[in-house]
Write a structure and sequence with these properties.
With 402 residues, this protein is mostly helical. It contains 16 helices and seven strands.
């Protein structure tokens, strides 16, 4: 049993035991102390710990804890909004006890709610917890390893931060590049995290990332296509299972690009014939890499293979016999084109929203299937109007705040 595993078991035991006693009872302090010692043992090997809870899955750092698969506490914590948990080395026993008491309150356990708790002054905390993929403005500095949040360390839903999800995608690409099998559980957990961020408000959000460094293009693009694919799949009325499956397919659609030389991907001008052949091979390579990781994910392999094929037969790779593409491939193709056009590339500037949507509408029936493209454009126009309305409300609120 690993130190991380032992700590989480002690964490759950402390919560269970503390829930039996009223606040101030010595048994609560004793239960917290046992768990705190486990945390100290873990910190000797890893000065800063990060846990993620998505459904019944537990991730420590970037790796799934297989021994805690289907751990009931993960599902309860995730449902209570405690989907990420981080500890700095400076955490002390008193802070840890206060943290446990607050988690008890979040979980709605009886004894924790029995006595009112005094408000604490806002101060930096070495323990942070909240929703995956979202942070408030005060916590943004913690991305760089600095002490960030104040008060309870909760993360707000106003600012989307997918830095850890991006790191997980990069790690997956590196694993495949080094010859390892595709880590499916990590891909599924990233998609679950993206889905959580999308549904963090009453309205479904499309929290798309903006490219900061072209070296991160494949990672950023994969995340954006996954978000768009889930948004469109949901708009089309697909089941929750299908929405997640389409999200994973979107996340992995360009996996084959790990086999394309970096200088070809970054080339600012037109590709020569040899370079074009290398690039056009990535759908085939992506499908092979996915199937090598698991034969159970043939839909993702189909999407990787077909996402550059147009409904009129154009695109690549060319096929010897004409057949219809998988519905997920048609959907991901539209999302792929949209995000590619809205992003600055070495060989062209980004297109504006109106130009992209007009292009998609012109190409309906030739490149894009109408059953996918028409609702996709409708979804994006609705999203754009909501964004504009939200911006207008923020601008109106500025004078009042001043």
């Amino acid at each position: 049993m690993t130190d991380a595993h032992q700590f989480l078991i002690s964490f759950a035991q402390a919560l269970a035991r503390m829930s039996l006693y009223a606040e101030g009872h010595p048994a609560r302090a004793a239960a917290a102390e046992v768990s705190f010692r486990r945390l100290r043992t873990l910190q000797q090997a890893d000065p800063r710990q990060s846990f993620s809870f998505v459904g019944r899955e537990v991730i420590y750092g970037q790796h799934a804890l297989r021994e805690l698969q289907d751990w009931d506490w993960a599902e309860h914590l995730s449902a209570a909004g405690v989907q990420r948990l981080e500890f700095d080395a400076e955490v002390g026993p008193e802070e840890y006890r206060e943290f446990l008491a607050e988690i008890l309150g979040r979980l709605g356990l009886h004894a924790a709610a029995a006595a009112p708790r005094m408000a604490r002054p806002a101060r930096p905390t070495p323990i942070r917890f909240g929703a995956i993929g979202v942070r408030d403005a005060a916590s943004e500095s913690s991305i760089d390893g600095e002490e960030g949040t104040a008060g309870s360390g909760r993360w707000d839903s106003r600012i989307v931060d997918f830095s850890e999800e991006a790191e997980a995608v990069q790690w997956m690409h590196e694993a495949v590049t080094s010859g390892q099998r595709l880590p499916w559980s990590e891909a599924e957990l990233v998609v679950a995290s993206l889905s959580t961020a999308m549904h963090n408000e009453r309205e479904v959000l499309l929290p798309l990332l903006t490219l900061k460094d072209f070296d991160q293009y494949t990672t950023t693009h994969s995340i954006n296509v996954s978000v768009l694919a889930m948004g469109l799949a949901e708009a089309l009325g697909l089941s929750a299972r299908e929405v997640r499956a389409y999200g994973v397919a979107g996340l992995l659609h360009d996996l084959g690009k790990v086999r394309v030389p970096v200088d070809v991907l970054r080339k600012p001008g037109a590709l020569n014939e040899h370079e074009r052949r290398l690039l056009n091979q990535h759908p085939v390579d992506g499908a092979r890499l996915i199937l090598a990781g698991s034969r159970k994910h043939d839909m993702c392999a189909a999407v990787a293979f077909e996402h550059h094929i147009m409904i009129d037969g154009g695109g690549y790779p060319q096929r010897h016999t004409r057949r219809d593409c998988h519905h997920a491939s048609l959907l991901v193709h539209a999302c792929d084109v949209f995000d590619a056009l809205r992003t600055h590339r070495p060989y062209r500037v980004a297109w504006g929203m109106a130009s992209i949507l007009a292009y998609i509408e012109r190409r309906v029936g030739a490149e894009f299937h109408p059953d996918v493209a028409v609702p996709f454009v409708r979804m994006l126009r609705t999203w754009e109007m909501r964004q504009a309305a939200a911006s207008a409300l923020e601008e109106e609120a500025v004078p009042a705040a001043l």
